[in-house]
């Protein structure tokens, strides 16, 4: 029903905007997606990671602005690239890179400011020295 979908979307958005919320949501969705072996599981894994990335790249209706949303969520997306748990690191990196690509396509200026500049800052510092 529509009311349940709206309630779930609202709760998901609230969680994403909290510190550590992106990692908690990604972990919850990926663990809830199950597992398995073989090509079918791998394809399902890709689809799940892509779906999570689309959710992260979309600004929820509860946010005042896309700029505020990016300011809160993008640093958490970049943190997904540094997860040390070997079991989930690959999936988290897949979600982070797909989210980054989606945001660059949909909101290039905000993606540059909140994702690309922080990601490339160490490289730029080395090239300037």
Automatic annotation (TrEMBL):
Q: Which residues form a coiled coil?
A: none
Question: Where does the chain cross the membrane?
Answer: none
Q: Which residues form the TANGO6 HEAT repeat domain?
A: 16-128
| Highest rank taxon of the organism | Eukaryota
A single GO BP:
protein secretion
Family annotation (PANTHER family): TRANSPORT AND GOLGI ORGANIZATION PROTEIN 6 FAMILY MEMBER, TRANSPORT AND GOLGI ORGANIZATION PROTEIN 6 HOMOLOG
User: Any idea what this protein is called?
Assistant: TNG6 protein
- Name the gene: Tango6
């Amino acid at each position: 029903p529509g009311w349940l979908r709206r309630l779930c979307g609202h709760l998901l958005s609230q969680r994403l905007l909290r510190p550590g919320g992106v990692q908690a949501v990604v972990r919850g969705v990926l663990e809830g997606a199950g597992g398995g072996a073989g090509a079918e599981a791998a394809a399902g894994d890709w689809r799940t990671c892509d779906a999570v990335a689309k959710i992260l790249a979309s600004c929820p209706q509860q946010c005042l602005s896309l700029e505020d949303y990016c300011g809160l969520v993008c640093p958490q997306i970049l943190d997904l690239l540094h997860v040390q748990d070997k079991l989930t690191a690959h999936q988290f990196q897949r979600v982070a890179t797909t989210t980054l690509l989606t945001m660059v396509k949909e909101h290039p200026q905000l993606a540059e400011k909140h994702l690309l500049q922080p990601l490339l800052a160490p490289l730029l510092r080395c090239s300037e020295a």
